[in-house]
Design brief:
The complex is a heterodimer.
Chain A lengths: L3 E11 L5 E11 L3 E6 L5 H9 L6 E6 L2 E2 L5 H4 L3 E4 L12 H12 L3 H15 L14 H13 L5 E5 L7 H16 L3 E5 L3 H7 L2 E6 L2 E7 H4 L3 H6 L6 H8 L13 H15 L2 H5 L1
Helix pairs in contact in A: 3-4, 3-5, 4-5, 5-6
Chain B lengths: L11 H4 L2 H17 L3 H18 L7 H21 L5 E3 L2 E3 H25 L4 H10 L4 H29 L5 H4 L2 H32 L18 H23 L1
Antiparallel strand pairs in B: 1-2
Helix pairs in contact in B: 2-5, 2-10, 3-5, 4-5, 6-7, 7-9
Classes of the chains: A alpha/beta, B mainly alpha.
Chain lengths: 285, 253
């Protein structure tokens, strides 16, 4: 059993103006997991992330990060363990060059020159912006601006990285690039939590999915399991990826006894079936 | 809740014609700047507080704003005391008493003045304010600019908070526990994203306005209309008389 890095116990959060934004949330995220959080706007996703990162403090319940109750931990200390990439990259870029931008975090933490350089190199390399060190951040393309922000959070050296809708407003290629970066972080041992509205990306990249609805957790399980409950997902107006629906609609004729998450998987299953039954099943479909 | 939000209500102050409120604001501003007698200014200040009470505006909701003003006033008084020559000095040649008194008076005058402004803005819906400005002869474009500026300040406040959050995640702590000089040094991390964001937003807004033919019509019509009631005229005359008396008391005595 992997150790849990974020443990949320009976978390409730109420905004000052009275509305209950989170109701009795219990989530346990293990080290090295790649978690997707989905749900409609206003379901409480961002509020949850802000609670985890200490930007908001729980009204009830508690959050343990690496076993430590975060209630009295300052945001800036917590940021060393949990990196949080906010939604809009334009809300934090201020420096003259990409390098300076990424070095800002490590500098704040009080690292020395050599350490800062090492962190910056690592972060820029991880997001693939090595060639843009001297570029003026606001002048970069939207995708690259998002990458700069991700690098600047990565440079803080957190084990856990939380991305709040990193793909919003990105084109198709940008979405996949950013998710690839996230996947790469995950491979390097980081725990990843990603909020997104792109179901196909969730299905393709994450191993675990949490669905939120009306301030509560509706579903929490492996991504495959979550997408095998289309009826429940429909309650919160989420549709599984098209390929999942296609595979399901073909169900009696093409017996794939598993929820399909991406096109590659579907193809593999078809080929496997074909070789099993000498091609009859597929031809019949 | 801030000093530039509309605060709904049905008080006398709320019901007054926006034009009356705007004229009052102008007259009171000029009067206060002419005044030099502490007691007359105090009378204005008290009547302002009374209006706040009548309008049912919560003073405690603007605490943060008042705190900010206080720091400004301390700064003003110190600077005046430092640079205004006088006869009595706190130290040898530094910090004149006369300067301090002048600074205090200036601060008090400003405070009174500033307390009158929310009284207009917080009790008038923004579209009525624009209507009032236009009916007073201001071109709609300028009235729109003025009211949009008011409208956009809360957006900026929210934006600033988000930016601060983002920078906190990158280990910026000076805004919570840093020294003043460190805060000043860190301001670019807030101001640069804010300004760039504002420019992007302004550009978008311009396109949105153009696409809806802003300014195409020669005469602008409004859904709502306003007309001066008896109470408006009485209030305006009363305020003019009071300001006149205040000036007379100030200069005759």
């Amino acid at each position: 059993m992997r150790e849990s890095v974020i443990k949320i116990e009976n978390l409730s959060y109420k905004y000052e103006k009275g509305s209950l934004a989170l109701k009795n949330i219990n989530i346990d995220i293990k080290k090295g997991e790649f978690v997707g959080i989905i749900g409609q706007n206003g379901a409480g996703k961002s509020t949850l992330l802000k609670n985890i990162t200490g930007l908001l403090r729980p009204t009830e319940g508690r959050i343990l990060v690496n076993g430590r109750d975060t209630i009295n931990v300052p945001v800036s200390d917590l940021a060393l363990e949990v990196g949080f990439v906010l939604q809009n990259p334009d809300r934090q870029l201020f420096a003259n060059t990409v390098e300076e931008e990424v070095a800002f975090g490590p500098k704040n933490v009080g690292l020395n020159e050599a350490q800062i350089k090492e962190r910056v190199d690592y972060a820029l390399d991880a997001v693939g912006l090595n060639d843009y060190r001297d570029a003026f951040p606001p002048a970069l393309s939207k995708g690259d601006r998002a990458k700069v922000v991700i690098a600047s959070v990565l440079a803080m050296g957190p084990q856990i990285i939380i991305l709040d809708e990193p793909t919003s407003g990105q084109d198709y290629r940008g979405c996949y690039q950013i998710m690839d970066i996230a996947k790469e972080f995950n491979k390097r041992g980081h725990t990843l939590v990603v909020v997104t509205h792109h179901m196909a990306l969730v299905a393709e990249y994450t191993e675990r999915t949490i669905v939120m609805m009306n301030s509560e957790v509706l579903l929490d399980g492996s991504t495959r399991e979550v997408f095998s409950h289309p009826d429940k997902l429909r309650m919160t107006h989420i549709k599984p990826p098209q390929i999942t629906e296609v595979a399901r609609s073909l169900q009696p004729k093409i017996p794939i006894n598993q929820t399909i998450l991406n096109v590659g998987e579907f193809g593999e299953k078809l080929i496997a079936l074909k070789s099993e039954k000498g091609g009859n099943a597929v031809n019949a479909g | 809740m801030s000093v530039i939000d509309y605060y709904p209500g049905d008080s006398l102050v709320h019901r007054l014609d926006p034009r009356v409120k705007l004229i009052t604001l102008i007259v009171v501003t000029v009067t206060i700047f002419l005044l030099s007698n502490f007691f007359v200014i105090a009378a204005f200040f008290l009547s302002c507080l009374m209006c706040w009470h009548i309008a049912g505006l919560p003073l405690n909701k603007v605490k943060g704003f008042l705190k900010f003003l206080l720091s400004l006033f301390v700064f003003l008084t110190v600077v005046q005391s430092l640079f205004l020559p006088g006869e009595h000095y706190l130290f040898k040649g530094f910090f004149s008493l006369e300067g301090a008194i002048f600074g205090l008076l200036l601060s008090f005058r400003l405070l009174t003045l500033i307390c009158f402004m929310p009284l207009v803005i917080m009790t008038t819906p923004i579209n009525k304010l624009a209507l009032g400005l236009v009916k007073m002869g201001m071109s709609y474009k300028i009235a729109y600019m003025a009211t949009t500026a008011l409208n956009i300040i809360p957006t900026f406040q929210d934006e600033t908070k988000v930016i601060m959050d983002a920078q906190k995640m990158r280990g910026l702590t000076v805004f919570e526990k840093g020294k003043l000089i460190e805060k000043f040094k860190a301001y670019p991390t807030l101001v640069v994203p804010l300004v760039i964001g504002a420019m992007r937003r302004a550009q978008l807004m311009g396109v949105a306005m153009d696409s809806r033919a802003f300014g195409a019509g020669k005469t602008k019509t409004f859904i709502e209309d306003i007309s001066l009631q008896n109470v408006d005229i009485v209030a305006l005359v009363l305020i003019l008389i009071l300001c006149g008396i205040a000036l007379w008391v100030n200069f005759a005595w």
